[in-house]
Amino acid sequence: MQKLINGVALLSGLVSLAVLGGGVYLYVQKDTLIEQSRERVTAAITEAITEALPGMVDAAIPGVPEMTGGAIPTGGMTGLPIKMP
To answer: Is the dihedral of CA 9, 14, 17, 23 positive or negative?
Structure first.
C-alpha cells in the first residue's frame, strides 16, 4: 500500500512541476505569442477583405447602358428656379 501512495505522490509532484513549467514558459513567451497571434489575425482579416472587396465593388457599380434616349427638355429652366432670358 505504501508503494501505491508513493507512486501517486510522485505523479502528483510531476504534474505540479509540468503545470509550473508550462506557466513559466507562457509567461516568458507571452509577448512573442501575442505578436504572432496578432500577425495571424491581421493576415486573415486582410485576406478576407481582399477576397470580398471585388464582389462588393462589382455589385455597387451599375453597368453602362448600351443605348440611351434623347435629352430631357428643360423648358427654358435651369436646375435653379431662375428664368433664362
So the answer is: negative
